Protein 1
Amino acid sequence: MARILGIGNVVLDTQLFVNTFPIEDSEQRAEKRLFAIGGNVANNLQVLQQLGHDCALCATLATDNAAKRLKNALEARQIDLSHIQRFIQGSTPTSYVQINNQNGSRTIVHFRDLPEVDFDHFAKIEIEAFDWLHFEGRNLEALSGMLNIAKTFLSHQPISIELEKPRDGLESLLTQVNVIFTGFAYAQASGFQTATDLIDHLQSCAPQATIICSWGSEGAWYAAPGAMPCHQATQALPKPVDTLGAGDTFIAATVDALIAQKPLAEAVSAGNQLARRKCQQLGLDNLLDPLVTRKPIANIKHITNSRATVVPAPGLQHKVVLIKHDNEVKAYLNNCPHQDVPLDEAYKIDINPFEMTMKCSVHDAFFRIEDGVCVEGPCWREELTPVDLEIDPETGAIYIAEQ
Ligand code: FES
């Protein structure tokens, strides 16, 4: 276990889940709303804490309700908040995030009117007590001084930085760090077409640093000091659930592996794997639970063609309806496309064995069991969302299929 200090931002995210990305100047209803901890470094620490490290956050908070909510949520995740800087004026930074249910993409509108951590606040922290310092590449006013004292007072502890957006003067500070995390957004905003072009450029700014550049579904490129860039691919996910925080998860898992002194290629691979895992679930909690996707949700011997069985499915947004059809088990999310409520909201799901349909108990929409299409009712022609299953031929255990 390492003691890790993260310096950057904490944000209250309001996440709105939408079925289609909104058109400008239009109105649409969100399917779901969640509040969550956001901000890159706060996310990094949430994951690092789950990976067994002792994490402290250095960021600013106001004194409003959003700050209270964040404080409670961070404390519940055992993040040490003793280095938070509070401001009476201003409001806690907030992000309004639209998550597209079709592909898990996230579009963020951020608001802040709160100052960032000032140098004097940072200078009072006993940084020598930490094993790793990770900075967000922002807050240029104070960052230069912070990196200077970190470099001066730390003897062996690595300093890492994330470059998300280009900022004036940022690259001139990179000689002070050991590890640089960057990615597609930084490359794009800086005019680099490829990860290797960006790494070449950063190597000229910071020849002493290890550089790791994540590139979404294409995996990541990385280079040790003075070495040529290498690539670690990742397996693309056909249908990500939620990509928000995937990059932050990548950084956390890579830092964790570097702390464990794994070779760089292995560390980047660990980052890719956990980021991929994150995209298969909502939020960052319980990321390491290996049973989340592989716990059987039911057994085939309990599924019949005369009754719909509704079971919880960890990692999915809704329960799952299971029913036998032609010796196959059909599975759909228990979510009526008419009003986004469970099919059994009012009563059980009635089955018509002659028509081979099942009925939503709320307004009597009939869905074909075979393909989930509504054949009668208020959401005619709309479809239930199918769920892919894997069934163990020996035990009959039913699992949600790995994506
Ligand atoms: S909510 Fe299912 S038919 Fe109206």
Note: The chain has a mean pLDDT of 92.
Protein 2
Amino acid sequence: MKQELKRRPLGTTGEHITEVSLGAMNLRTLDTEVEGIAVINKALDLGINLIDTARGYSEEKPDGSLRESEVLVKKALTEYKGLTEPIVIVTKGHGYDIEAFDRDLKTSREKLGIEGQTKLTIGGTAIKLVYFFHGISQDRWVSMKENGVLDHAKTLQEQGLFTYLGFSSHNGHEECIDDAIKSDYFQVIELPYNVFAPGLEDLIKLAYDKGIGVINMKAFGGNGMVSKTEVFKQYCDISTQKRLQFALASPYITTVDAGCKFIEEINEDVATAMLPKLSKVECDQLIGLAKRVGECTEGTCRECTHCLEKFECPQDVNFPKILALHTRYKIANEFDYEIETIKKKYVAIREEALKCVSCGLCKEWCEYKLDIPKLLQETQYLLK
Ligand code: SF4
Ligand code: SF4
């Protein structure tokens, strides 16, 4: 018999959500709409019953057209046939006052092609709409509590314009997350949680205890960590699969939002969800490993190459290529791997590295604000 994805209660809403859900954010980056729709179709084929999108998930293409994640969801659901139960759609807006909330909600409903009130549909397919305040921070939360948007949102929810109200937020906003969870306005929230940054676990548990459904975002560590793991995967095993297993092991999370871009990824994530859950001991070991990696690569280059998309060193120094050896050296050193090969690679490109005149022009183009000239000097010191 075909194994099916397990489901967990979405707090006390009465909905039951598959342990892995589809994050549609990255679909905007694909070259064609067809590819994005194919990923959504695959997720639905696999039984996934929650798709996570947002008003802000859009990207301008070279021909000037806009690729919007919400529109992809609309097109996919309109074409998809054979769903026997409502699909839960999460979308998010930046409306932190009444006027902006109304505007964003209206736009999202239009872009998603949502029809009806209370009984919501997209292209004839029944849906439940979870509407989020996207990315609340302390300032935003204080203003939201004062300007009436929370009660306004509650009224619109009662009128059936959306089914559940929620919010998303990030590390560093613990105070307002705590307050918002306790405020009784929200039925669903979305927070980051992963083996590299498990710090919001207590708030996730608080939400769970309050009967709020929790969507786990950034389970793989966020974009910066994804590129970093390419560097350290040869030294220690905190693979994509392990990271997903880590998130799935939390009993307080309803579903892990797997931000897929390709059909292979969603296939792999669903296969991982079918594996036995990690034990507490295994999770703690992974956290320990991730902590070691995090500490020894603190402030090192992640090889994301985002800087090179916008900037060219006037001395023709390909600094990410050189700094990649610096990061590898740090990890190899921490995990007692041989470092002679890394040194040899550096010697082969040392001439280029020494062309750096420490002008510092590259610094502002680094996504992570690294002190690149200083790192290049450190590389020369360690690997010469
Ligand atoms: S220097 Fe910064 S932006 Fe460039 S590849 Fe390294 S981490 Fe990324
Ligand atoms: S600091 Fe070095 S690597 Fe950066 S732009 Fe100047 S010369 Fe190039």
Note: Residues 306-383 form one domain.
